[in-house]
Design goal:
The protein is mainly α. It is built from 42 helices and 12 strands. The chain has 5 domains: about 170 residues, no CATH class; about 150 residues, Beta Polymerase, domain 2, CATH 3.30.460; about 180 residues, Nucleotidyltransferases  domain 2 (Four Helix Bundle (Hemerythrin (Met), subunit A), Up-down Bundle), CATH 1.20.120.330; about 210 residues, Beta Polymerase, domain 2 (2-Layer Sandwich), CATH 3.30.460.10; about 150 residues, Nucleotidyltransferases  domain 2 (Four Helix Bundle (Hemerythrin (Met), subunit A)), CATH 1.20.120. The strands form 3 sheets. Strands 1, 2, 3, 4 and 5 form a 5-stranded mixed sheet that branches. InterPro entries: GlnE (IPR023057), GlnE_rpt_dom (IPR005190), NT_sf (IPR043519), PII_UdlTrfase/GS_AdlTrfase (IPR013546). It is an enzyme of class 2 (transferase).
Length: about 1000
């Protein structure tokens, strides 16, 4: 009986190997791998991250080796470790493939039992290379560059070999430490070369090279600028030239050296003495410069000078959080980082995007600065080591520290693979619709070593998971330990952070009253039953959002009061827990405004509108035209006028809360805010008038008069602000056979009751109805008949009364009577030929008197939004003067709105478009600021505050995106100054 034949493996086709390059079959044949004995080699090649790129590089390498290819080919058949290292690195890095082709003998570096040399061994190797080429200066840089790439090749091969042959891979910290050691050796070699060029036979000056950033922390990338600071015994021209030459050598042979972290940045001296460094950091340094010093480490040059530098400056690092501007500078730096990334690239940014590497590094460094003052265990440089120390010290949970470390290392791994591909500095992911690029990255990162075609899908999911985890832990890092330090028994907290540490952390996060903040937190998580548990889950994220607002202390207090007031509302906490958009928007409102929280206490249902509906934010669902019917219907349910007006004011309160919330959240621009407030004001006046008229007509009597309410000032112009009174005039007309006196008496009683009820003190914001713009002002009768008004304006009207009529419009009451009043007013406010020259002179004198007498004592005329330079009064008086002079000629100027009239002035050619634009921008800016002042302070005011937290809040409330009060104030002063120049020229004649 014959023995069965042994089944021999077949040579796989290029398709089965995953090769898609049309040249793949020919390339396999050129290498002689189309025989049975190369089956294992081919299957190893197929597992390379990019098998086509690896095969193409091997063909080029074979050509470069010539006869030496036989040695490599034979080694690949028998040495599994060599196959894994070589194929993996060629499939991961086009640049290292080019290096091997240029230096083909370097493949032998990947054979055998590889170990990574120590930093001293590396330094010795690089300095020996410098010594060997000292007689041939032209060879030193090429030789050093080749040596550096050879060492990168060995490390990369060890790092990625697991993707092909599942060989043991060095840990993340081993890779980053070795890259830093390699940089140290390169810096030492670059300095030695520079000394030979600059100093010749002279003794080189004492110069220490301090590594900063990732190199200083010994967590360097494959490709990165190496940040350095130079410290010299003498800061003379020779030392400066030596440092400059060292940077040139390093940049040509190895990597870019960046000295931008030195005092004064790129504008400062390249080299300073130790004493000069100390003096700068003691007097001038910003917070971010101390944060950078967290990673300072002597890397090359004079070791004693380097040690002295670190010893002198390290104590200053741990005192940085006590600086007055610590919080504001940290926030400003965080804003700059966020704003530096183009919107279209944020989802692909590994480093600067949301949930990226910078979030981890920023959070860790901030916690180190806060707690390292009293805990030396936090005096470590690397992010991974710092996470371990923070977890061990109880500043963050151990599990959270481990999770954050895992996400950080995953994102750094992807960054390394992206940089290895072309040895270019990058942290930008491929486009998410580029499946092939994502598949390569997934395989290079060994996410799916089996080579499945869905590797890119797994990578997308992993990225999403890690980004979300970093974002979540970024908030939890700062706040969960605070809650643990005060949490009551039963909440399963560890009590790892001391109260003193908790106060330091709150202060560093922007809370000016950390003790009060801790008491608020204790009260919130100490609520009975399930509420306390839900608060404990919510608060880390809520506090993180609050810390980004201008007034986190006020916001936390408002949140506590709101939580206590709504303890009986079952929807409140679950809504915040389940709808992050609602919670985030609420924290922004609470941390910015003193006005809205008071409204929300009595109108909590508005909070439910903070979410998004099918057509957008629910806060925008209300149509202004629907307000009046709602108010009238609500008031009509109450026969008692006091209760009816209370219902009107309650609906007005809810509408105020809705408009102000949408305004603070950037959902409404200033013109829409003014229109919405005006619509609400007119609706409240109409409903209140109906209530009082009904109450004064008992037993079914007919009204002895028709009444119309004429809006004046901002109400008439459709431009009300949060602090605006409702300026009105009342006009009546006898009805039902009544005489004028009876009609006026009855109408006056109605008007007085209406004003009293709307403005009466109560828990709801009062609505003050001001009739002082009527003829003769406060001295004149509150109500007149239409005929009386006509007779008065025809004979006695003063210039200010004519000017006031420019904003008159019907807002409530009898519509026909209101329109007839306006037609009568047109004869006065738009006279044929315009107002007289004498009237213009009187108006100018009156404006000068207002400027001199009505500005409050101590007010700054540059920043008073109403009466200040280029403020609202300046713009409005200028527009109204042009109306008085030209509205008879240009009917389009017959408009009660300041902004719309400005548009008409430009269209009529009365002012240059640039001048009109300056006036428009000033009016809009001042109106935003005036509204923001009410939102922030909770009461009407016209004076912008000085620099500080309140000005920052005003800037945020006014829609200034950076929230920087100083920038906002500079903008306000610039806009109003330019507008004032136009006002002087136009209004002053």
């Amino acid at each position: 009986m014959s023995k069965p034949a042994i089944e021999r493996p077949a040579v796989p086709s290029v398709g089965r190997l995953g090769l898609v390059d049309p040249r793949a079959g020919a390339n396999v044949a050129r290498l002689g791998w189309d025989s049975i004995e190369h089956v294992d080699v081919l299957w190893s090649l197929s597992r390379a991250p990019d098998a086509d790129a690896a095969l193409h590089a091997l063909v080029r390498l074979a050509e470069a080796l010539g006869a030496g290819w036989e040695e490599l080919n034979a080694a690949l058949l028998t040495e599994r470790e060599l196959r894994g290292r070589l194929f993996a690195v060629l499939g991961s890095s086009l640049a290292l493939g080019d290096h091997l082709v240029a230096h083909p003998a370097s493949w032998r570096l990947l054979r055998g039992d590889l170990t990574l040399p120590s930093v001293d061994q590396l330094r010795g190797t690089f300095l020996e290379c410098v010594a060997e080429t000292s007689s041939a200066p032209g060879l030193v840089l090429p030789r050093l560059s080749t040596l550096y790439r050879d060492r990168l090749l060995v490390l990369a091969a060890l790092d990625v070999a697991a993707t092909v042959e599942n060989l043991p891979a060095p840990s993340f910290t081993t890779v980053t430490t070795h890259l830093s050691d390699l940089a140290d050796a390169a810096l030492a070699a670059a300095l030695r070369v520079a000394e030979g060029i600059v100093c010749g036979q002279r003794t080189p000056p004492r110069l220490a090279v301090i590594a900063m950033g990732k190199c200083g922390a010994r967590e360097l990338n494959y490709v990165s600028d190496v940040d350095v600071i130079f410290v010299a015994e003498r800061a003379d021209w020779l030392t400066a030239r030596l440092a400059s030459e060292m940077m040139r050598v390093a940049s040509q042979a190895f990597f870019t050296m960046d000295a931008g972290l030195r005092p004064e940045g790129h504008h400062g001296e390249l080299v300073r003495t130790l004493d000069a460094h100390i003096a700068y950091y003691q007097r001038w340094a910003k917070t971010w410069e101390f944060q950078a010093l967290l990673k300072a480490r002597p890397a090359a040059g004079d070791p004693e000078l380097g040690r002295q530098y670190v010893a002198a400056l390290t104590p200053m690092v741990w005192q940085a959080c006590e600086r007055e501007d610590f919080v504001s500078e940290v926030r400003a730096m965080r804003r700059r980082v966020e704003q530096s990334v183009p919107a279209e690239l944020r989802d692909r940014e590994l480093k600067l995007g949301s949930g990226g590497l910078r979030d981890v590094e920023f959070a860790v460094q901030l916690l180190q600065l806060v707690h390292g003052r009293t805990d030396e265990s936090l005096h470590v440089a690397s992010t991974v080591d710092a996470l371990g120390a923070l977890g061990a010290g109880g500043y963050i949970g151990r599990e959270d520290a481990e999770n954050l470390r895992a996400s950080y290392e995953f994102l750094r791994l992807l960054e390394h693979r992206l940089q290895l591909q072309r040895l270019k500095r990058t942290h930008l992911l491929p486009r998410f619709d580029d499946d092939e690029a994502l598949r390569w990255l997934a395989r290079a990162a060994h996410i799916l070593p089996d080579g499945t075609r869905d590797a890119q899908g797994v990578l997308r999911e992993e990225l999403r998971r890690h980004h979300l985890r970093v974002s979540r832990l970024h908030a939890k890092l700062f706040y969960q330990p605070l809650l643990e330090s005060i949490g009551p028994p039963g909440l399963e907290f560890t009590h790892g952070m001391t109260p003193a540490a908790a106060e330091r952390q709150l202060a560093a996060l922007g809370y000016e009253g950390p003790q009060s903040a801790l008491s608020h937190l204790a009260a919130l998580i100490g609520q009975s039953g399930r509420r306390g548990r839900v608060q404990a889950v919510l608060l880390p994220k809520l506090l993180d959002w609050l810390s980004d607002t201008p007034d986190p202390d006020g916001g936390l207090l408002a949140y506590r009061r709101l939580s206590e007031a709504l303890a009986g509302q079952r929807w409140f906490l679950p809504t915040l827990r389940d709808e992050s958009a609602v919670a985030k928007r609420l924290m922004r409102v609470l941390g910015t405004s003193a006005y809205v929280p008071e409204l929300l206490m009595r109108a909590p249902e508005v909070i439910q509108q903070y979410g998004d509906g099918p057509s957008g934010p629910k806060l925008l669902d209300v149509e202004p035209g629907a307000l009046a019917p709602s108010l009238v219907a609500s008031a009509s349910r109450h026969p008692d006028p006091v209760r009816a007006i209370a219902a009107i004011r309650a609906l007005r309160r809810r509408e105020l809360a809705r408009i102000a919330s949408a305004d603070l959240l950037g959902m409404l621009d200033v013109r829409h805010v003014c229109k919405a407030l005006t619509a609400m004001g007119t609706a409240a006046l109409q409903a209140a008038l109906d209530v009082v008229v009904r109450a004064n007509l008992a037993d079914g009597r007919r009204a002895p008069a028709a009444i119309a309410v004429i809006g004046m000032g901002r109400l008439g112009g459709g431009e009300m602000g949060y602090g605006s009174d409702a300026d009105v005039m009342f006009v009546c007309e006898p009805a039902g056979g009544a005489d004028d006196s009876a009609a006026v008496r009855w109408s006056t009683s109605v008007a007085e009751q209406m004003r009293a009820l709307l403005g009466a003190p109560s828990a709801d914001p009062p609505m003050y109805v001001d009739a002082n713009l009527r003829p003769e002002g406060r001295s004149g009768p509150l109500v007149r008949t239409l005929g009386a008004y006509e007779a008065y304006y025809a004979q006695w009207a003063q210039p200010w009364e004519i000017q006031a009529l420019l904003r008159a419009s019907w807002v409530a009451g009898d519509a026909d009577l209101g329109q007839r009043f306006l037609r009568m007013a047109d004869k006065t406010r738009y006279p044929p030929g315009g107002v007289s020259a004498e009237a213009v002179r009187q108006i100018r004198r009156m404006k000068a008197r207002v400027d001199a007498e009505r500005l409050p004592r101590g007010a700054d005329p540059n920043t008073h939004t109403k009466l200040g330079r280029g403020g609202l009064a300046d713009i409005e008086w200028t527009v109204q003067l042009l109306q008085l002079l030209h509205a008879h000629e240009f009917p389009e100027l017959r408009n009660t709105s300041t902004v719309e009239t400005l548009d008409a002035i430009a269209a009529a050619g009365l002012l240059a478009e640039d001048d009109v634009d300056l006036l428009r921008q000033a009016w809009l800016t001042a109106t935003r600021a005036r509204n923001a002042l009410v939102l922030v302070r909770g009461k009407p005011t016209d004076q912008l505050p000085g620099p500080g937290r309140q000005l920052n809040a005003v800037a945020a409330a006014a829609g200034w995106h950076s929230g920087d009060g100083g920038e906002f104030l500079d903008h306000y002063l610039r806009v109003t100054r330019r507008a004032k120049a136009v006002v002087r020229r136009v209004f002053g004649g």
